[in-house]
Structure formats: C-alpha cells, structure tokens
Amino acid sequence: MDLVQPDAYRTWRESSLGAITEEIEQALIWRMAGPLAGLRLLDVGCGDGAYAVAAAQRGALVRGVDASPEMIAAARRRAAEQDARIDLQLANATQLPFADGSFDVVLAVTVLCFVADACSALREMARVLAPGGRLVMGELGGWSAWAVLRRLRGWAGSRLWRAARFRSAGQLRRLAEQAGLHVERMHGAVFYPPQAMLARLLAPVDLWLGRATTCGAAFIALAAEKPSPPGYSRTGR
Description:
The protein is an alpha/beta fold. The chain is 43% helix and 21% strand. The chain has nine helices and seven strands; from the N terminus they run ααβαβαββαβαααβαβ. A seven-stranded mixed beta sheet has the order 3-2-1-4-5-7-6, sandwiched between helices. The chain is globular and about 50 Å long. The N and C termini lie far apart (38 Å). The mean pLDDT is 93.
C-alpha cells in the first residue's frame, strides 16, 4: 500500500512552511554526509528523487530505491529534468538488491517511520555499506509539536500518520548500534511548531540549536560509520 504520493511532496515543498522546513532538513543532511564527490551512494526510500538528484549534483555516483512505482517514476522525471545520472529501481528497504559492501554512503531520509520492520531495514543498510562507509539517516522526531499533530491525525483516520512510527534520538541510536554501526553524531532540526510565521522567525537559529540538542526536534539526523575489520583498506575498491 503506497501511503505517500509524489503530489504530496510537491504540494508540501510549494507551501511556505514546507519550503522553509525542507531547506533546513536538507542543509542538515548534507552537513552530516560531508563531501560526496566520487563516492558510491545509495538513497534508500528515494521518493521523488530530491535527495538523490542533489547527491548526484554533489558528485556522488548515485543509486536510488523505493517501494513505490509512482515514486520511482517521479524520481526518473526529476533526474531527467535536471540532467542527473542516477540509477533507480523498485526495491524494499528490508531486501536491498545489492551485494555486501557496495556503497560508501547510504542515505535514508524519513524512511524508517514508514517501514514495519525497522531493524531489518537497518541491517540491510549496514550490509550494503562498505567497511568505513557512512549511514546518514534523517527521521521524524517522536517528541515535538509536529509528532503530536501527526498522531492526532492518525487517530482521526489518516492512513499515512496512522501507519507511521516516530522515534526518539535514543531509539534511533539503538537501532543503528544493533545493526553493528558506530554512531558518530546526532543533531536535531525543526524546533518551531508547524506554523509558517514561526518557522520564518526561528529558522535562522534552528540549525545552531540542533547542534546542542535533539530534545523537541521534529527532525533528527544521525551519522554512523560501519567499522572496518583489522587491516582493511578501502583503496583499490
């Protein structure tokens, strides 16, 4: 069952609140990812391709997967419109069709909240990472005004938010560690309530605040590394 459709992304980004929030979230994700030129990157749950295209524009060798045929079609249109070379295919986050150690970076933004088996998804992401590779994950925080509103919408009948699960920073850290990854850092973002006027007012200090805490953040980003075995070298990959 496809809970999110490409039109929902476009409508969100075209709104004032959505544009401000999207800019903040993307800035945080790219800061956590670091330089990408020449790296093999997998975007899990790539949606309409916004992050995949941006990664390609930063010089990454990008592949993207999504469980929705509509999203893959939208991502292909975006890639064609922006002349971005990306390999896209239909796949589930819990069964990634790639060999062990295929990627230097795995990106997953607002994916786990819509995956029934988050542990399996994280294990798959860790599996396809090369030793020394990095997982960059962004998730909807469980303790914010946004999460309260989404839960209320779920109780009121929204299929999208009824199916979603929002996690704390501690829960996300434990999931990553259970998958065998070493969490390097976690930052928060989107500390304002879902109101455009307050977003415009507070956006300039949002990422600064997120460096200090994840408490109250509507968006939580995590960067984790896959440990390298003794004597392993990534040269010549």
